[in-house]
Structure prediction request, 413 residues.
Amino acid sequence: MSSTNMRLLPVLLLTSLFFLSGCTFFNNLFGGGEEEEQIANPFIDNLDIDPYTGVQYYLPYENVNVFSLPDGTPVPMVLIPGGDFIMGLTDVDPLAIQASGRVRITVNAFWMGQFEVTNGQYRAFLRDNSGREAELLPDSTAWEREVGIPWRTVFYSEEFSDYPVVAVSYDQAREFADWAGMRLPYESEWEYAARSGVSGRVFPWDGIYYQDQITGQIQANFAPRGDKALDGYVLTAPVGEYPANNFRLYDMAGNVAEWIMDAYYPSYSTLQRTRGELITPRYVSDREPRKIVRGGSWASDSFFIGVGARSFQHKDQASARVGFRVVRDVDDPSLLLGRTGIGRGINRVNPRQNLQQRQDLPSPPADQQRPMQQQQMQPVQQQEQPVVPPPPPPPPPAEPDDDDDDNDTDNDD
Prediction:
């Protein structure tokens, strides 16, 4: 080999190494690299594709049921199965805004509101608690200070009945949940449901983009790049306006941030353990005034609508950006299988219509009445449609007369 070629050999080797490392760099940069930890999707065998949005649902529609508030106002809820997942921020955090860490936990099954609590549902709460309006009304000054639109125009208008209620404090949200026989979600429940049980996600949907990669549709109501109108709504949107996640839950990202039952602590070290294990862990403290809010709002950037992003708010501080949704415990083991008839009579083409089908239940006989708390926990009994018998079949055609046949034969001859 010539001396010239010998001198070029190190250069060629260095160039090759640089090229290979560059390929690896760009592959990782654009998402081709391997995940830090691969988590199998436990629901992959139960896919049900929505023909209207293309969302692949992991839960059958039989997991959806409409429950009733004490006055008959409907509350659509989804039965969320228990499971394991890794809780914590998945998205990049270049400014080290959050340092909560990541932890593997187990969540028990529970019911979760399919939508955020609406103005119409909260007005029903106020009507049923007349005389306490002063302490239960949303904070109109918080709304008008942030938005600039008269609060009464929105809250009391039937046009905005399906919009999420906002400007309520943590205690007001808990009062509503207690009245409904429900509660606020624990942080572990909320994140598990927002992820649809899938660890490693940035948003409630697959991928790292907030736009649908086929249609280009923005998948949540928030403020991408600071533009509050880019998604179609400057402020709040009607609940269910954007596609649901894989657990059939709407607005788990954006629209309004949601009060969580847990008190805030910078890390997950305070999560209460059950028998030494993290099973539906929670950190509930009356001494800590800071309460967790999750999901981001119509005014948030893409980081804070992520499923792992945490924030907090003082429990007495109402905001036009914060609302809530409710959950309830699964106290009937037969519901865990989703085979007790739930889901019947539900509008699956337009699930938001289930919010407007008032469920007026007859009162049980006096000797069968139970405490109000137990009555509120019962699912709405869907009315069976009467079975209409099919019409009788038409009579068979009459047999031809033999004489007529003979006459026809004669004429043919």
